[in-house]
Queue: 3 jobs
Job 1
Amino acid sequence: MSNRAETDRDFEQRFARIEGLLAQLSLSSDPLVERVTREVLATVLELHQRGLARLLELSATDERVAAALASDPRVSAMLLLHGLHPLSVDTRIARAVDGLRVRFQSKLADVTLDARGASFAVRLVPSAGACGSTRAALKQDFEQALLAAAPDAESVSVELAEPAPALITLRRRRDPNDDHPPGSPR
């Protein structure tokens, strides 16, 4: 496993750990401990938000740096947490759909995106030869990628449509007698 993948997994585990600790804290029998702990956490998050906002201001002069920050999964997650992500939810969803369209081009006949506010519906039309497991995998891959790109979306749905039936052209086999009018010698 690559070092980056290990770091990403560790990052996600730490987020899960925070959620677990907050759940334990809510079970505390001492409301003062819970209130003070939550206030400390809120203050630390506010400090991080201000620091990240300043970092974005400083990086705004270099588009490459700003783009790298927005596309890094860990930094992107932190920016989303603090409501600072420089890309709109619409842009993040559209980019994710475009990337998935390219990635799965041989397995897809069509992909359409319908955006209504912060709700997104993606309609997938698999290629005619796609089997059931390929169809299920496409749906799952799209759902996971879109939720990762825009966890702040109000809703994201992925619908699998049936591919258009393959057009089969039937041609009548040419009869060698068709070249000769009836009653003429063959």
Job 2
Amino acid sequence: MAPATDTEALIALATRDIERRDAEILLGAAWNLSRGALLARAGEPVPDDVAARFKAWCARRAAGEPVAYLLGRREFWSMEFDVNAAVLVPRPETELLVERVLELVTADQAQVADLGTGSGAIAIALAHERPRWRVVGTDLSDEALRVARRNGARLVADRVEWRAGDWYQALESRRFDALASNPPYIEENDPVLASDGLRHEPRGALTPGGDGLAALATLINGSPEHLEPGGWLFLEHGATQGATLRGALVARGFTHVTSHRDLAGHERVTEGQWPQR
């Protein structure tokens, strides 16, 4: 990036390679200013150290690295989460999963598990909204759990129990009123995996390989051993996978099987209730 000394010149140069909004966010963060405060300084000289940090971030963003990884944080459920390359960047559509759990699990005290928790976003959002619930977050990745623990300590005062293990292995013989998961579900050969941002996120958290259904099938098939009678299973999934999941849940014995659409109109979350005895 060529030399520039003022706010507008720096942003204009950056927007040759990245979106203007990203450039404004990155320059504000490099200068420790909100986006609004930055825009109010249009035309002002930028300190050399701020400009150097901004240019380095812009080069990484132009190479596809997500803004969230550059800044080390991402907002989810009106809370700011620490993130790094060990975890997926929390996305707005995953808030639908949180909403569905809160809608259907109405008990003041309940036991809920978030499987494949990553940054801990789902588990922490649930613990934040329902302080008397006992929430467990699990992940196979020790690095991901370190991120989740930091977020849990800062955002919900360590009210989430974190457990290491592969899906239900982490739960041992415990049963829950609800199980929720945003598992890997993208097909192995889907070109979206090479798209901006995604190519820098942990591949194992994006795709299980093959047709993308393996992790979802594992979660459906194993869930009855870990649900209380009347308990719920909530799954985030790809936009074209809803019908397949509904069929799998019904075949496994679930009732009240329903899919819900995200703000873009895509089926994104499917739920089912394990029957009462």
Job 3
Amino acid sequence: MTVRVLLADDQALIRAGFRMLIDAADDLTVVGEAGNGREAVTLARETRADVILMDIRMPEVDGLTATRAITADDDLAGVRILILTTFELDEYVFQALQAGASGFLGKGVAPAALLDAIRTVAGGEALLSPKATTALITRYLAQPLPAGTPSEVDSLTQREREVLTLVAAGLSNDAIAERLYVSPLTAKTHVNRIMAKLGVRDRAQLVVLAYQTGFVRPPQSG
């Protein structure tokens, strides 16, 4: 199956470079290019792209606003958004994840890593490198909900809570299976059930929710 990719970046040169790289892969193809967030939303509906490479800083409508519009559209529920940022910890990255993006990459990423990232996100996985995730959590997620605030996490079984803890730590299904002595299929089933119960799109959203609710605490420095 060929993964359909939409490019959203206000710099034509960057789009051209990404298009050449992506179209050279046998299993990927670029189906459209957008120069701002408004065009990205329109083309997402017209092209039915599987993955959108979304720049954050764009004129007229920025990538964050476009991400919210796309993830809020039920007709685009299957679209995955991969945020592209000049800096690994762009101040808007976490907001983009909250809005429904499935991960983020620096624009200086190696070509092979970019292609793998597109495939990963298209497969429903989150793209959060351990280093970036730790820094992101430390910087943005150190503010859990006030004490006594009801949490959807309370509805999870003990095993599901174990799995959520491991997902929040950045472990893959295979790693979770190994840790809990279950099959990868069982681990995946647990993760999917947790996402359904908590009403989130993917693993990135699970990580956000786990820390926002205070279920998992940010790592302490020093």
